[in-house]
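User: Please predict structures.

Assistant: First:
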Amino acid sequence: MLLRRSVLISALAVLAAFALTTTAFAATIYEGNATVSGGELTLSSNTGDADSGNDFGVATFDVSSGTTFAELMDLSTDYHVTNDGCMGGSPRFQIKVDTGSGFKNIFAYLGPEPNYNTCALDTWTASGDVLTSGRAIDTSQVGGTFYDTYENAVEDYGSYPVVSVSLVVDAGWASGDGEQTVRFDNVEIDDITHDFTPEPPAPTVPTDKDQCKKGGWQTFTNPSFKNQGQCVSYVQHNR
């Protein structure tokens, strides 16, 4: 039987903040044991490091203001379980909603239904859209049931505004060695794909006159420019 912690994870340490674009680097907030490297997100739960906040890993993504649960679409990710497997309700998507009397979570678990605890190890798996007809959704925290259907969840809680969407790994406690590690890529939320590829570094000197336009000339410091024309002239003489 699937074991699960129903407590809401609280913020411990914000590690980074990035603006979302069509393809975005990482998430808005990282908590606990969360790292980004090589174009991937890694979340780990290590109960041996509970005092340091590493007994869970969370990546939280912004959602467009005003989006309701019924309007939330295309929630999916590629995931790779590298340590111990799926267990204890983890890994999962955690959808924070405003119930009108406080913030609560709706959960969509990753892994094969119905128990979500038989994930293939050391294999990249595409979750597919977890918000689809017939799929089980855990609405127990907002007054529903653990094996609620997506259709019923939308009917009962579809009007709740979505505050954020998180990926959560927090079930090291359920494994023999106290560890659980999952890698993620291509997290899609409402047609926005988060691919964890870092933005290329900004050029230190202008190499194209277009970089001088729209105030771009003001971003360069070595050399610095008095105006756009001076910046354009520098590019023309240093091609």
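Second:
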Amino acid sequence: MPADCAETMNEPDALRQSGPRWILHCWVTAAAFGTYFCMYGFRKPYTAATFEDVVLWGGLSLKTLLVISQTLGYLLSKFIGIRVVAELPPRQRTLAILGLIGAAEAALLLFAVVPAPWNCLCLFLNGLPLGMVFGLVLSFLEGRRSTEALAAGLCTSFIVADGFTKSVGGWLLGAGVAEAWMPSVAGLAFAPVLLVSLWFLSQVPPPDQEDIEHRTARPTLTRADRATFLSRYAPGLLALTVAYVLITILRSIRADFSPEIWQGLGFDKSPGVFTRSELWVALGVIVANGLTVLIHDNRRAFFSSIAIATGGLALLPVALIGLQQNWLGGFPFMVLMGLGLYLPYVAVHTTIFERLIAMTRDRSSVGFLLTFADAFGYLGVVVVMLTREVLQAQGVFARANFLDFFTAAAWLISGIGMVGLLTVWVYFARRESGQTIGLPGPVATAAE
């Protein structure tokens, strides 16, 4: 066992010894869910505002400029996080998360006092630390026999929080809080629960020996470790990353501009609709992805998760046709689109990378691989947002109808994404790395 893993295994684990295993699972899920749910309170509430009273040069909206600015910060954070998440010692993760979110709140306070449009720089500074939080939280969960269930609970946090924090932002605006001050006020409202959740997270013990035997150790990684894993499985990881980038782009469009999409579907600015739709999405996603924890064989679980992801993308054209043919209303359309996007998105977070590492037995970590994929995902988001502005300037899309842009992107991404995921299946079905990685089936491997 590597020295860094042995050191981790010797850390205090009073929580593990305090009762049945299900208590530990509930504790870990609550801690991870609460931490990342509250992080969204420092990132997303501003998107509930439209900032319609400010029009910039060339017709560029302030809302779009703010979204792009924060996403640029988030993007840079992901590239920085490739190294930070992989190399940060476990004992430093909790304080790192607290410091990152604290810096994001400071940027929101600056956002309130810096005049528009220059306050877009403050949202860049807000996104800059937040992009590393998910990888650090996920590092507490990976490498366990129950990782899929724990990670599904974690992923539920950003599905529900995306709508809930918009609802909080909308309620604050309705209560008379100014658009500029609303994001920082929302962040402060989430701060007490964040502190409690972080304390819970700091008490989580590392994976035990049986976890390591089934899923492999997840040590801190050097630059050479990272390069070796990426180069060894480059074709398959490239296809998976392309699909993930496309899904991230469409998910971000749906999340950041959901008020505009809901308006295009004929809904009023009711804050509660954001939360109601995402609760249904979260329910379907957590069941579908969380149940993969019951699949003991790592190879079978890996390919099953690829199938779930592909099936999710297949829901997008179903929803689009339903809307066009008027047999699907606006609310079920948004729920179905959410399921189609979050099923593959969460599958990557919960199972695909987790079981890939367990299947190959190679030195890597989910936190590193996911941060790597996220970096390129948010790069794609920025490119698409800028492209949209160019197309609008040329009259291709009307600014008042964001729904047209969203549906056009969904048609394209669903097709290319499914091809990418099928390529991943074929590549890893044929790839050999010390053991035969074939189609799912019972084989004797080191993982079992």
